[in-house]
Amino acid sequence: MSTAFITGASRGIGAVYADRLARRGYDLILVARSETRLNALAANLARDTARTVGVLPADLNDKADLARVEARLRQDRAISMLVNNAGIAAITPLLKSDVDEMEEMIDLNITALTRLTYAAAPEFVARGAGTIVNIASVVGISPESLNGVYGASKAYVLAFSHSLQHELADKGVRIQAVLPGATATDLWQAAGLPWQNLPKQIVMSPEDMVDAALAGLDRGERVTIPGLQDGEEWTRFEAARRDLALRFGNSQPAPRYRTVSTASAADIMQ
Predict the structure, then answer these.
(1) Confidence tier at 94 by pLDDT (50, 70, 90)
(2) Of 160, 167, 170, nearest in space to 223 by CA
(3) Other CB atoms within 10 A of residue 170 CB
(4) What CA–CA distance (Å, rounded) separates 206 from 212?
(5) 257 catalytic, yes or no?
(6) Sheet holding 79-84, edge to edge
(7) Other beta carbons less than 10 A from residue 210's beta carbon
(8) Which of the following is catalytic: 17, 26, 150, 156?
(9) What sections of the chain are H helices per DSSP?
(10) What is the pTM of this model?
């Protein structure tokens, strides 16, 4: 029986993923800091879906806890899906943010996600099957929108996912990056701006967000942006990015960067 392993699972997006995947027939392992919330959610899901739901209380910013979670991912061969959902956000301007808090965000949004992926991916590759869903954010391609470290951490998640897609696509492992916009979860409250204070027309429910993300996964999308109404806009953006990448490698600087020191003697004489 397949098991989905979900981080940040006690509430919000993670809890909705737990519900939806259980209803799709997955057993679950739920990871979050709050054992009380995890146990309550697990009991409800087990009752409503008749799936096996395990809990793994852990603080992914604690090295010992993170190592324990990594070990479970490496050792449990029933796990066929990893949903890297745990993360925190910030809305304060860069220079007004506490650098220690920024480091904690990097540790969770980047380091923990990377280490959990490294724990799961080799086993998925060995089996020739598995799915990794990385929850990024639209600020990963629009870092000016909110705190720069938050945006940069989500840009990392997107770039990391692209690289994994490139390396693992022919090995039977699916990698999906999900880029939510503003979503009605406690993440905003923790960042200092309750979602209720945002314009209603830009805030999506976590249920709609996850349902869209799973529909994108079913469609084989590598990147799913639930709030982007015209999917062709992303297709064109991604095609332009890949096309531009083909023109980066040249042995000579572009003419616009030529200076007297790099110009030829003949150029100087003219």
Answers:
(1) confident
(2) 160
(3) 7
(4) 10
(5) no
(6) 53-57, 27-32, 3-7, 79-84, 130-135, 173-178, 223-224
(7) 28
(8) 150
(9) 12-23, 35-49, 63-75, 99-106, 113-127, 148-168, 186-191, 206-218, 231-245, 265-269
(10) 0.92
